[in-house]
Amino acid sequence: QVQLVESGGGLVQPGGSQRLSCAASGFTFSSYWMNWVRQAPGKGLEWVSVISGGGGTTIYADSVKARFTISRDNATNTLYLQMNSLHNEATAVYLCTAGKLYEYWGQGSQITVSS
């Protein structure tokens, strides 16, 4: 059974940092490109970042480039998103997805940026 479980969400002050994790199970994690997407209140899904199976390729949306870092640990089947210099517009539910066609999805983790 495929599972993607995000954690690490919470309330963050503007300018602060937070790291999200996504624990994967039920599939060959290292074979899958992994994505982070987000959905802000009242808005559609926004793609944030992607990382290749081996971790050698990473791509970011312009809105998060230079502030967010995607990484993975294939030994523990875990995906990460380090988010720095957070501003209010980063408030969203962040979801991890597996595969270039977004075959598998997690349930999401809420990030709220507010003072």
Summary?
By secondary structure, the protein is mainly β.
List the helices and strands and how they pair.
Elements: E1 3-7, E2 10-12, E3 18-25, E4 34-39, E5 45-51, E6 58-60, E7 68-73, E8 78-83, E9 92-98, E10 104-105, E11 109-113
Parallel strand pairs: 2-11
Antiparallel strand pairs: 1-3, 3-8, 4-5, 4-9, 5-6, 7-8, 9-10, 9-11
Key terms for this structure?
globular, mainly beta, four-stranded antiparallel sheet, seven-stranded mixed sheet, 115 residues, 11 strands, single chain
Oligomer: single chain
* Radius of gyration of CA atoms, rounded to a whole number: 13 Å
Largest beta-sheet details: 7 strands, mixed
- Residue share in helix: under 10%
Description:
The structure is a single chain. This protein is mainly beta. It is 0% helix and 50% strand. The chain is built from no helices and eleven strands. Strands 2, 4, 5, 6, 9, 10 and 11 form a seven-stranded mixed sheet that branches. Strand 7 (68-73) and strand 8 (78-83) form a beta hairpin. The N and C termini lie far apart (40 Å). The model has no long low-confidence stretch (mean pLDDT 97).
